[in-house]
Request: fold
Amino acid sequence: RQGGVFRTNCIDCLDRTNVVQGLLGRKHLEHVLNRAGLLPEGIALQNAFPLVFNQFRRIWADHGDDVSRQYAGTGALKSGFTRTGKRTKAGLIDDGVKSITRYYLNNFQDGAKQDAMDYATGNYKVPKGTTSPFKEHRSPTMPLLAAVLSLCWGIVMGFQFAAGKTEGTMANALQTVVLPLVIGAVTLRTVVARGADLVRQPQLCPDLSQPW
Reply:
């Protein structure tokens, strides 16, 4: 007999919500096994059936990653904690990489995905006798790549210059350290300043893309 419900306030059930729901799912599994007479009262699942416990965590984490890929383009955040029950440095790095990837996909790729869904679900009706509604879109990939490479080159050469591994003249320092850093900073600033033009927003139903 169910006496209540748990509410996890997240429409997509990703990331931290998936961690909480994993805990609730494990508790419910223990309850089911206890009712079936397979798990003694007060004994945790990981102590009675460690193989089942590890399999449950792996399946739950894989499911969270699959849902997250459909919704956000990457695996779920905190999936390392869901799999192992521990927060590690590798898990933090993995979350950082996923967050950066999501930022790029959300701003520069998901507009086309939303257009496809609007067309497939009938939100957009193709008017007869009209031209294509799509406009040319400039990709930020190349300027962002150039900015990152210039900054990385300047930083690496700066460390080598400071360590005395390169010729220590002022002219050489300006060419190999300062100039790449300036080029990278200016390019990055330009991309940020023109961010509204570079973001790939939905074109078929732009009003529907606004949350409110």
